[in-house]
Design goal:
There is one protein chain. The protein has 133 residues and is mainly α. The relative contact order is 0.17. α1 runs antiparallel to α2 (23-34), α2 packs antiparallel against α3 and α3 packs antiparallel against α4. It has helices at residues 9-19, 23-34, 42-60, 63-77, 89-100, and strands at 83-84, 87-88. β1 (83-84) and β2 (87-88) form a beta hairpin. The longest helix is centred in the middle third of the chain and has 19 residues, at 42-60.
């Protein structure tokens, strides 16, 4: 497998969009990048894409879709328990856990009363100097 080019500008563009809560646009940028990958970090980027989709669904009130994408995001990202390419995966996972905690609790029926808490919406943190893994 080839090495991942962590200097690709689409990574930072996706992070910027994610942090500005432009989750659908973020998904599009990262999916374009992800489709070209042949490196071991490809599942990590799949997890980042699904994090954006989970938050998009949560924001739009599609709670079932949000929960499914959150669980899938965690499954992909849990294999990357380090800072990779300057991206702090453990911090993102922790923040996603906090954001989705209430939604993932057992509920009687559909939890239509749950809304995305603005103060818990994750941000992606990345070191500024990237030289690879």
């Amino acid at each position: 497998m080839a090495e991942c080019d962590f200097t690709d500008p689409r990574i930072d563009e996706g992070i910027r969009l994610f942090n500005e809560r432009e989750f659908f646009a973020c998904h599009d940028v990262w999916e374009d990048f992800w489709s070209e990958l042949t490196c071991p970090e490809k599942p990590m980027f799949q997890g980042l894409i699904q994090a954006a989709v989970a938050l998009f669904h949560f924001e739009e009130g599609n709670l079932g879709g949000a929960r499914r994408m959150y669980q899938s995001c965690c499954a992909y990202l849990s294999g990357f328990q380090a800072v990779i390419g300057g991206i702090d995966i453990p911090a993102l996972l922790n923040d996603m856990d906090q954001c989705f905690f209430e939604l993932c609790q057992p509920h009687q029926g559909y939890p239509s009363h749950i809304r995305l808490n603005d103060s818990l919406v994750p941000k992606i943190h990345r070191q500024t100097e990237i030289t690879g893994n």
